[in-house]
Amino acid sequence: MQYKPYAILLCSIAINSSCWATNTSHDLNGPSHSATQQVPATTLRSIQHDIRNWKLQPAGEKLQQALTQYPQSAQLALLQGKFCYLSEPRQFAAAINALNRAEELGLKDPELYFYRASAKSQPTEPYLMRKQPDYRGAVADFRRAAQLNSERDLRFNIVQALFEAGEYAQALDAANAFLKHKPSIALIADMRMLKGNILAELERHEEALVSYKKAKRQYGYLDKLYYFQAVSLLALNKLQQALEIVDTGIEKGRHHLRELHYIRGVILYQQAKYHAAFDEFSQAWQYQTKWALPLLGCYNSLIQAEQKLDPTRFLDQALALDPMVVIHFHQQDLLKL
Questions:
Q1: pLDDT at residue 145, rounded to an integer
Q2: CA dihedral angle for residue 63, residue 67, residue 69, residue 75, rounded to 10 degrees
Q3: Which of 187, 212, 217, 265 has the smallest count of CB within 10 Å of its CB?
Q4: Domains contained in the chain, CATH given
């Protein structure tokens, strides 16, 4: 895309923002002060319009020019954070850096905290746990945005960040409060599905299945919902039901086929159907060839099946992708693959 050079340049400016002053914390909604700069309103509106309408190339050009003239502008730092968050390739660290800069310059804006929370909560290779997102920081920022009367309904975002942070008791309380008190109609099914995940993490799988069933009334077409149901059925050792649910999910599947084939492999392995399990792990790996877990599943299946085919190549390939794959295989959280 043509706007990529601007994204890379502007986001590198955000990363190397130590050249900017950071000695202010005044709210720009109050009186102005010398540490910040007033950018013409027409310039800000023009950049904001372009970003809102995904016209990122002209937005990048205007931002670059404006930042050269007004490097001390908190509003421009906010727009730069949005730009880095939305541009391809996504630059989450640079977005956080720019939004930190806006806050240091005194801006107290719900959009600042929303975008910073969103950037902090971006998952990267969750099962490897190598670049763990800052979910607790995201919770704090989402709550700060809500306190500043954000126009967005952030209750779902808060519950989701609590869930990802492993704060399951808090997440469950917040989910129940949402569903009980004036829930947003558009988010009810999403919250019920998320509540199911929370209950599953708390090993309350029967209750999780009830919540998934309620979500299914609206989201019966979502393949990931069938995957989540299969995780709880597997935990309850209801293997045949889990397999039937997975098969339905695969029939409807579009976005989560790798997870569905992976868990189908896990179920078949538990049923001692090792040849079929190998096929499913192989299929899962085809969807993401840098994913080590299904390769280890292939290895384990071949070992159990006592095939003449040498299984060590699957182990070697898995270890090359993830030297800790054996530990990760046994510690995997199926809800967060």
A1: 97
A2: 90
A3: 217
A4: 1-14+46-106 (no CATH), 108-219 (1.25.40.10), 246-337 (1.25.40.10)
